[in-house]
Structure formats: structure tokens, C-alpha cells
Amino acid sequence: MIRLEHVSRLYAVGDQVVHALDDVNLVIEPGEYLSVMGPSGSGKSTLLHLLGLLDRPDRGRYLFHGEDTARLDDRHLARLRRRHIGFVFQFFHLVPRLSAAGNVELPMMLDGWPLPRRRARVRRLLEAVGLADRARHRPDQLSGGQRQRVAIARALALDPELVLADEPTGNLDQAAGHEILDLLEAVVAQGRTLVLVTHDPELGHRAPRRLQMRDGRLFESPGGVG
Amino acid sequence: MIRLEHVSRLYAVGDQVVHALDDVNLVIEPGEYLSVMGPSGSGKSTLLHLLGLLDRPDRGRYLFHGEDTARLDDRHLARLRRRHIGFVFQFFHLVPRLSAAGNVELPMMLDGWPLPRRRARVRRLLEAVGLADRARHRPDQLSGGQRQRVAIARALALDPELVLADEPTGNLDQAAGHEILDLLEAVVAQGRTLVLVTHDPELGHRAPRRLQMRDGRLFESPGGVG
Ligand SMILES: Nc1ncnc2c1ncn2[C@@H]1O[C@H](COP(=O)(O)OP(=O)(O)OP(=O)(O)O)[C@@H](O)[C@H]1O
Ligand SMILES: Nc1ncnc2c1ncn2[C@@H]1O[C@H](COP(=O)(O)OP(=O)(O)OP(=O)(O)O)[C@@H](O)[C@H]1O
Ligand SMILES: [Mg+2]
Ligand SMILES: [Mg+2]
Predict the structure, then answer these.
(1) Closest CA to A3 of A31, A30, A26
(2) Residue bearing the CA closest to ligand 1, atom 6
(3) Do A199 and B173 touch (CB under 8 A)?
(4) Any chain B CB within 8 A of the CB of A60?
(5) pLDDT tens digits, chain B, 226 residues: what are they?
(6) Atom 27 in ligand 1: residue holding the nearest Cα
């Protein structure tokens, strides 16, 4: 499903060059559950954006479903993204003018779902994240953690085969955080793939595969122990 | 320094009314260190915005340095804020076009500091939060945790007597989180006042006074035990 071969991502600011990703190699099979941990600024979000076809490597190759993404134009990447990938951004990127329900409904509208089917799924997703009573609130009428939960519901809207979650519990208390993780892990139980970036070791250790990032380099901890 | 008497803050969305704060009473003396914990949506940010003179109660009284804030107009509140309060917002609110250094320098420029003095303090503050090598990056060229640390450095720029921090470590790994807390607690050691909202019980328990919020109501846990 996913193969990164010697992938680097560089940024230049003034005369300084940052190696956000530095010779990263990674294979992910369908149905796997991985966590990615590492210090602030180590490259986690950059990795997730690349995996999510939102960014392109400067060096190396990224094969998605066996296809070299370097050969695909932006429209093609956007189509692949909409069909296969659910993304929970670190800072949510909700549409400010839409309500919570409107934000969750948007992917389904873009995918041509009929109204009754959309409405039923929106209601179920908002209930699943504990926000049935905030459906009509816009993002600026929600608390930080509530916005985060809307972003999670939206990422699951089209039942994607690959879920990429960038610190999905950073603005939640421990109880709500564990509930959200249960919801995301239910995805894996249905045979889908989950990549979870987190700063919380307790959550990171729930994944059978654990990756660590440091200064753009990717390491894998021995599976499932400790 | 701070006295809230029967303070409520209500929001109306459609025909629904949310009690973000519900009959809150609170006294904070200079030099105190308090934490505020509670589930997502319980009113913590609303409380902090009110304390920070960024919002006004719908009912009840807020006395700041003995003055009833209801009698002060917005310009007066802004002056008090600039002179006395440092605020770390939950989602940072950095100025997008300014670099990290520019964001930290801004409060000092508004306060009329000469250039050499500003530059020296900006350098010291960015070093204190571990971002000396990111001074020229704009917010969109920084990771989530790096932006959070710029917001903390900016809040401390004018050495305020009251620091209000809304989940200042939500996007940081544990090590960076503890370092930031050491920095904020140094403020208390100099006799200033710190109010810390956090979802991390380990951090919340570092404060001698611990408040809990639930559905807009404020409770105080017995001091210092457990
Ligand atoms: N502008 C608004 N209009 C309507 N409701 C609002 C508005 N702002 C906040 N709320 C509601 O007020 C309540 C308190 O919000 P607040 O942001 O204070 O919560 P919080 O404790 O900081 O939560 P979190 O931990 O998720 O950040 C929430 O239920 C939220 O939906
Ligand atoms: N547009 C950009 N221009 C320049 N540098 C950037 C840019 N975006 C990110 N960086 C740098 O790349 C590095 C990796 O950033 P990334 O956002 O992937 O970190 P992260 O591991 O997600 O951190 P956090 O836990 O703080 O969110 C950081 O050092 C950051 O300063
Ligand atoms: Mg990140
Ligand atoms: Mg909040």
C-alpha cells in the first residue's frame, strides 16, 4: 500500500536548510496500525503530509498502491486522497463558516451522497465523538477539544481505507482522549490502516508498530514489547 | 488582585443556550500559582479569557486590582492587559507575517522599548524555549510545538505580573512540556501570578491550588494533597 524509499524533504529559510525528513524508508501494509512519536520539530507532521499526498518529497520515491506519486499531477493526487485517505490535521483546518455538522457533511457532499444518507451519517459521527448537542455550532463557537473532535468525525466521513491522525487528542482530557482512540482503533478492526502521531506514550504504545522520529530520521522500535 | 463574584457567561446558538460559565466565584492573590482542569467544553478557556480582560461576564462582577471591570471601556481594558497580563492562547494567535523573533518582539515594540534592548530580550526568550535556531521562521514554517513555544516566549516578553496559560504543552512531548513548565513556574518564583489550564494531571498537580471545571461550574480541590 505505502512504500517510501530514501525520501527527504528539505526547507530553506534564508541561508539555513532544514532537513524535515532525512532519508526516510518505510513500508506500510493494508490493515496495519502504527504510531509515530518524537520531539517537537522532529518531522512527524511533515511525514504525515507526505503520506497523505498533501506534499511531495524533494528526493527519493513514494509509491502509493504501487504507483510512483512523482508521476501523478496534483489533480490525480487530490482524487486519490478523496477516495482513499482520511486526515486529522494537527490544527484541524475546519471550514470557519460551516457548522460542525456542515464540516462533517462536506466530504460526503463532494462525493455526491444523497441528502438523507448524509444527514444520517453526520448524526451518527457527531454522536460517536460526543458532540450531538453542538451540531449547529461553527468552529469559533466550539472549544478547542470540540473542534478537534469535529475534525476527527470529518476524517472518518467517507470510511477511508487509510486514516492519518496528527495528535488527535492534544486538546482533550484523558478520558475523552481514550474514547477517541477507541473510535480510531475501530477503523483498524475493520481492516483499515491507521497511522497515529502522538506525544502521549500511553497512546503511542497501544499501536503494535511504533516509529520514532528525531531530526528528520525515522527509527522503528522493536514490535509490541514494553 | 482578582475577584470574581457570581460570574456567568452565556452563549446563544439558535434556540440553544450554553452556560460556558455558571455562577463562578474566585479570588486570586498576587503570587499565587493555580491550575484549572476539566473535560473538553467545561469552560476553562472562557474563564481564562474573562480573567485576561479579553471577554466580559454576562452576570456578576469581576474586580481586577479592586476596580470593577464593568465600568472600564475597551481601551482601558486593553491598557490594563498590556501592562499587567501575559496570555498564552490555546491556539497561539501568532501574527502570520512576522517571524518567530518578530512575534516575540511585538509587545516590546508596542511598549516603546529601544531596539538593542528588544533584540537582546528576544534572543534570551527564544533560547529559553529552545528556538534560537528558528528565529527567522514565520509561523507557517514552524511545527505545531514550535509555534506553541513562540507563543509562550511572547507571553513572557514584558515580564507580566499575571500569566494566563491555556494548555501551553498540548503540542509538546513530555520532555519539552516539563521544560516549558519550569520556565512558567520561574515566573511564580519571582512573585508573579500563574494560572495554568491543562489536561495533563501530572502538570496540574504541580500547582499548589487546583481548580476543576465541569459544565461551567468551578470547584476547588483541597490544597496540596494527593
Ligand atoms: N462563541 C461561542 N458560542 C457558543 N458557544 C460557545 C462559544 N464559545 C464556547 N462555547 C461553548 O462554551 C463551552 C465552553 O467552552 P470553552 O472553550 O471554555 O471550553 P474548554 O474547557 O476550554 O474546552 P477544551 O478543553 O475543549 O478547550 C463549550 O461547550 C463551547 O461549545
Ligand atoms: N514551511 C516550512 N519552512 C521551513 N521549515 C519548516 C517548514 N515546515 C516545517 N519546518 C521545519 O521542519 C521541521 C519539522 O516540522 P514538523 O511540523 O514535521 O515537526 P513535528 O514533528 O510535527 O513537530 P510538533 O510535534 O511540534 O508538531 C521543524 O524543525 C520545522 O521548523
Ligand atoms: Mg506536528
Ligand atoms: Mg479550551
Answers:
(1) A26
(2) A141
(3) yes
(4) no
(5) 999 999 999 999 989 999 999 999 999 999 999 999 999 999 999 999 999 999 999 999 999 999 999 999 999 999 999 999 999 999 999 999 999 999 999 999 999 999 999 999 999 999 999 999 999 999 999 999 999 999 999 999 999 999 999 999 999 999 999 999 999 999 999 999 999 999 999 999 999 999 999 999 999 987 554 4
(6) A144
